[in-house]
Amino acid sequence: MDKIISTPEAEAAFEKIGNAIKGAEASRMFGMPCYKVKGKAFFGLYNNDVVFKLTGDPHKEALALKGAKLFDPSGMNRPMKQWVQVPPAHKSKFAAFATEAFNYVKKETK
Description:
The chain has 110 residues and is an alpha+beta fold. The chain has helices at 8-19, 56-63, 94-108, and strands spanning 25-29, 32-37, 40-46, 49-53, 69-71, 80-86. 34% of the residues are buried.
């Protein structure tokens, strides 16, 4: 796995979104900063892209964005099927996707 490097601006924006979600806990996953709910990750910062654990229509919407792809942290063509990696060009959608991911993972962990 490559070393994860993000700009201070990307990190600040990521933290602002995560800190605004009540019940989200800052943590780390695969060496990258992430936020978790009930111990399960729901979104993270991978270089300057943001990754979200999504399902259903939000998953399809995120994956349809230009430059978005399934998250493959190993780089060995083994993507995590529920996780979508979205480039910073779509930062206006990050808070909504983070909320969708939070709600999905929170419900999944009941």
